[in-house]
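re: ur question from earlier - yeah i can do the single chain one, its not a big deal. heres the input i used so u can compare w yours
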Amino acid sequence: MKSSITQTNKFGRTVYQGRWGFHAVDYTTYIKLKALYKIYWKCIRLRAAHRRWERKLEKNRKGTEPRYGTVHEMIIESNIFQEFQNARTPVADPDLVIPRKMSDTEINNLLMRWAVFQEKRSDLAA
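and the output i got, formated as tokens:
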């Protein structure tokens, strides 16, 4: 995936050539998507834990409520799952590369919101 060779396909999109084929994203964007993909699955698990906690009667709830909020929903509703799958799968022909649906700004924005959420969470715990 580490590649610096770029080409433009017949649709005018920039594609990156890796060892095994062509990709829609460069390596740094791939690493960001990989981190968001991991966060995506954390959010899925947290949403499930929150739903399980909510279903119980108050007298049967043990522990504190799982912290689930708008940041988690934003990450789940974003296109991270498909974006990461497309980014990590090489294709043989540069014209077959699936175009990205998320911009670098959207990716960076989600990562920043997650970092702020984590920072607030650590401040509350301290």
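The chain has one domain: 5-125. not sure if urs matches, ping me
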